[in-house]
Amino acid sequence: xxxxxxxxxxxxxxxxxxxxxxxxxxxxxxxxxxxxxxxxxxxxxxxxxxxxxxxxxxxxxxxxxxxxxxxxxxxxxxxxxxxxxxxxxxxxxxxxxxxxxxxxxxxxxxxxxxxxxxxxxxxxxxxxxxxxxxxxxxxxxxxxxxxxxxxxxxxxxxxxxxxxxxxxxxxxxxxxxxxxxxxxxxxxxxxxxxxxxxxxxxxxxxxxxxxxxxxxxxxxxxxxxxxxxxxxxxxxxxxxxxxxxxxxxxxxxxxxxxxxxxxxxxxxxxxxxxxxxxxxxxxxxxxxxxxxxxxxxxxxxxxxxxxxxxxxxxxxxxxxxxxxxxxxxxxxxxxxxxxxxxxxxxxxxxxxxxxxxxxxxxxxxxxxxxxxxxxxxxxxxxxxxxxxxxxxxxxxxxxxxxxxxx
Length: 406
Fold this sequence. Notes:
Elements: E1 2-3, E2 8-9, E3 18-22, H1 28-35, H2 39-51, E4 56-59, H3 68-82, E5 87-90, H4 94-103, E6 109-114, H5 117-130, E7 133-137, H6 148-164, E8 190-192, H7 200-212, E9 217-219, H8 225-234, E10 241-242, E11 267-270, E12 275-277, E13 285-290, H9 297-308, H10 310-315, E14 318-324, H11 328-338, E15 343-346, H12 351-355, E16 359-364, E17 367-372, E18 375-379, E19 385-389, H13 397-403
Parallel strand pairs: 3-4, 4-5, 5-6, 6-7, 8-9, 9-10, 13-14, 14-15
Antiparallel strand pairs: 1-2, 11-12, 11-15, 13-18, 16-17, 18-19
Helix pairs in contact: 2-3, 3-4, 4-5
């Protein structure tokens, strides 16, 4: 079980999705944000993952030239102030890890500890002191063992050392060596990942051990995956769940509506069940903003920003209308909870979103799904698109709109 100040996630009963976009590895724009101390960029990555369905957020801010202990602690505190998801603290720096654990509100996941003596001595005392669930990596001073037996040996070393520190129950896995005897009731699943030097022969060597003990088999991406699937089916293995996670850092979208064009016509209903059409907006400039879902962190920040800036926007001649696929009932609850002082449209059939080109396929961790692209359109009094905001600053959106007119 891991938790934040308001949410708990139980590991083992159902698949848990850990978002790993708050990580500079291979991401030049993210690395730039860390160097520029752009915490807002990191938060937006967190909002996007929450909206995509992540249960836990991994947080890694490690770059050689930055003060990782200070930045990790600051980032953890900033995320916990606005996002309710539990966090996985991802660092190899024990000083950074301890500072972040000390400030963390809840029970975090720790990524990670290996079978290296140095790692065991640095991480497990912190887990014992502050609490948490720690991820074990089956590798040691010699790197990742080439054989399944070697990896299980590393895992056992971690498990036994955790027992010495009195925190064996805080390990993120329960592992046994099939060659020495296994207790299926203590094994949640066997995860086979395509890591460096992995061959299909090594994977298949472990498969009979899995089948004999009726343990779920979870596969992660590897170049030989189709061959492995075919072999497993031919030999009577049932793959309980196959999760292919391949992160994509960008979504390329061609907007169907451009500035200067007439705004697409629409007909929808407000949170109070009243009909509303584009014609009803004529004669006044309108901020028509599309957002993914009521009561998610990013959408709540955006709504509060527009709420707080409404008086100033009204003086400039704007009215505010929000659009999402949520129901009228959900909108009413959202408005009541956050004292929203503007209209929300219930677009449950996505027709308004589709008309404005913001209902599109998204991709997160290899999972493709349809959703709303957070976008704001400013429509003039005659019904023309005046401005389009595709990179929305959720926390300061009303100011972003006002500043664009200066």
